Amino acid sequence: MKSFTSSLGLLAAFITATQAGLRFPCSTLTNQRLDPAAQPGALPSAHLHMIVGGNAFNATMEGDVASRATCTTCQMAEDFSNYWVAHMYFKDPKNGTYHRVMPQPVQPLLGGSNGAQGGLTIYYTQFDLSRDNLKQQPIKAFPPGFRMTVGSPTVTSKQHAGLSYQCITGGNRGSLLSTFPTGKCNGGIFTTHHFPPCWDGKNLDSPDHQSHMFDTVKSEYFDNAPACPSSHPVRVPQVTFEITWETTKFADLWNPSTDANPFVWSFEGTAAGTHADYMFGWKGDALQRAMDKSECFYDGCGSIKKQQMTEANKCTVKDFVKENIDGWQKFLPGMGGANANANMKVKKSFTA
After folding, report:
1. CA-based diameter of the chain, in Å?
2. What are residue 51's DSSP bridge partners?
3. What is the distance between the alpha carbons of residues 129 and 14, in angstroms, rounded to a whole number?
């Protein structure tokens, strides 16, 4: 895997040659136990999520999300979609208490993304990162009301390709892993979630939130998806989330030679249970315009309106759940009954 410096050079090479797709940052909108895709109407949902995107986010979301949102934490100002993942936690190997691991601000690898607050990086690719292949393979944008998930918190063994971990050390992301790194990562833990690229063309959702999609991708990277099957014939953008979790603040609180990996997701579970949710909310035909543009990496050759991240960071939603998720906790939010959110008075060697 290339270092960040090498990745910059690679992206620059794409810009001077052919390019395909979108890449942009979204700041954190909120951290709450809400999940309108997998647990619609549940207030609260089972475990904590980090959510980015439009301010129409709520426990229940149906229909055209973009028609109800008034702002977004994403750089693309016409993208009122919502994107969310389970939150990462550090579990102290000495006393079993938990503390949230914060996402690092999205790195400004390409222009205008300075100033993101936490959040994640979003990709919509047409073919791969260097080609769009639109003459042979047109891309259809998602319709209003569309949603999907990838991965499952109940899985205990390796899932399909595209859900991965990397240990950032010395500016290098390291090899792709299917589980949490076992050693300390001085640049944080990098996680990636690739969504399926084939849609049945009929259903906006399915009972398991995944059966209306089909994954033909066998690689962990941004490679072209093989042809879609007749059951799911519509080729849609390949959606991907990337996040860097700031695990370095916990480096002095565990010893890899004597302690097992101390990082867990907000549902605890196993590393194989990593998952992500997507709710489409682009305004009008904005995403389709970008997907129809050939050789346009990052911003759709100006076909989409962008906003400064200082403006995106003003977008908020109210605290629907109203529970304490900060500080050291005896239990993960939602996992310990009436006392699940009681702060533990535990002395630590850093201020998180």
Report:
1. 61
2. 30, 84
3. 8
Determine the Cα–Cα distance for residues 32 and 44; give it in Å rounded to an integer: 8
**What does the DSSP assignment read for 323-348?**
----S-BSS-TTSSGGGTTPBP----
Place of tokens 């063994």: 157
Between the CA of residue 158 and those of 40, 151, 209, what are the distances in Å? 27, 10, 19
What does the block give as tokens for 136? 């042979």
Q: CA angle, corner 255, sides to 252 and 257, nearest 5?
A: 160
151-170 confidence digits (pLDDT tens): 999 888 876 678 999 999 98
Using DSSP's 3-state secondary structure scheme, residue 288 falls into: helix
Asked whether residue 25 carries a pLDDT value surpassing 60, the answer given is yes
Q: What's the CA gap between 264 and 48, in Å, rounded?
A: 12
How many CB atoms within 10 Å of residue 250? 21
CB neighbour class for 293 (10 Å; exposed up to 12, middle 13-18, buried from 19):
buried
Task: Spell out the domain ranges in the chain.
Answer: 4-339
Q: How many other CB atoms are found less than 10 A from the CB of residue 24? A: 24
Token pair, residue 307, equals: 């906003």
pLDDT in tens, 41-58: 889 999 999 999 999 999
Structure tokens at 345: 């008075």
Number of neighbours of residue 127 by Cβ within 10 angstroms: 22
Let me know how long the chain is: 352
Which residue in this structure is represented by tokens 């008034």? 70
Question: Are the C-beta atoms of 150 and 210 separated by less than 8 Å?
Answer: yes
Report phi then psi at 177, rounded to 5: -125, 155
Closest CA to 88 of 186, 202, 181: 181
